[in-house]
Design a protein that fits this description.
The chain is mostly helical. It has helices spanning 2-17, 29-84, 104-107; strands spanning 89-92, 98-101.
Length: 116
């Protein structure tokens, strides 16, 4: 009976503590270094790709804004020219009168031409 008690006690201790099995390392330091290098290379490629995509998006946005600014500048230029350049001009004609028309030649057409 003492043998049964000892055997039961040993089994209870073994089940309570659990197996203490240690496994050997599956890879070497060289393999770990190679794996880390490969993972770093893949991460760098992903970062480079993300940077490239961001640069393309920025360039596209900048191009759009530049075109819009150019259109706005042209419109302002046209309005500015219209404000500075009147639709008519005045000219002193050969007969001594001052006439107004779109061109000096047209202004003095009935007055002997433009006085020089």
């Amino acid at each position: 009976m003492f043998q049964k008690l000892t055997l039961a006690f040993c089994m209870a201790c073994a089940l309570t503590v659990g197996p203490s099995v240690t496994f050997a390392q599956d890879t070497t330091a060289h393999q770990d270094a190679d794996k880390a290098g490969t993972e770093a290379k893949q991460a760098a490629k992903k970062a480079g790709s993300a940077t490239k995509d961001a640069a393309k998006a920025t360039a596209k946005g900048t191009k759009h804004v530049a075109k819009k600014t150019a259109r706005g500048t042209k419109n302002v230029l046209k309005k500015g020219q219209a404000a500075v350049t009147p639709d008519s001009t005045s000219a002193t004609c050969k007969d001594g009168t001052v006439q107004v028309a779109k061109t000096k030649t047209a202004a003095c057409a009935q007055h002997g031409g433009v006085k020089e």
